[in-house]
Amino acid sequence: MSSLKEQLLKRKSECHESGECSFVEFQPSANTRQGFALAQLLHYTLDANPAAELDTPDRLTLAFSTADVVIVGARLVRLSDLVREHKLAVVRTLPDRYSELEPHQSFVAEILIRPVGKPGGFEGLG
């Protein structure tokens, strides 16, 4: 059985392909996967917290033509860089207790996906 750190390193290698990615897959829970073509990305916005505290998390919003995706966590600057470089393949959430396991890596606490044209807002966002 491998350690959690080894499992995270394996996941990290799965997330960054050597070439450009056509799709990015979001996994808000263990049983849910939703992918979007990067060609459909209209724009993105990173609201970064310079203090890098989870009390005031970073928020990366990706606007695709069919849905808006909000990623909430810490140190999300690297994810926005990967989006720009077309190298982001998979985004997964982790429990808060693992937020400092790799203090120089992005930490994703929550992924919210809302199809465009659906009434209402993102649940869970303050």
Write up what this structure looks like.
The protein is α+β, with helices and mostly antiparallel strands and 126 residues long. The chain has two helices and seven strands. A four-stranded antiparallel sheet has the order 3-4-5-7, with helices on one face. The protein is globular. The relative contact order is 0.22. Residues 11-18 have low confidence and may be disordered.
Ordered list of secondary-structure elements with their pairings:
Blueprint: H1 4-15, E1 23-29, E2 32-37, E3 41-47, E4 58-64, E5 67-74, H2 77-84, E6 90-92, E7 107-115
Parallel strand pairs: 1-6
Antiparallel strand pairs: 1-2, 3-4, 4-5, 5-7
Briefly say what this structure is.
The protein has helices at 4-15, 77-84; strands at 23-29, 32-37, 41-47, 58-64, 67-74, 90-92, 107-115. The chain has 126 residues and is of the alpha+beta class.
Instruction: Provide the gyration radius in Å.
Output: 14 Å
Name the helicity range.
10-25%
Helix count, DSSP H or I runs of 4 or more residues: 2
Largest beta sheet: strand ordering: 3-4-5-7
Q: Assign an overall shape.
A: globular
Strand content: 35-45%
Low-confidence stretches: 11-18
Order of helices and strands: HEEEEEHEE
Biggest sheet record? 4 strands, antiparallel
Secondary structure class reads alpha+beta
Overall mean pLDDT score?
Answer: 81
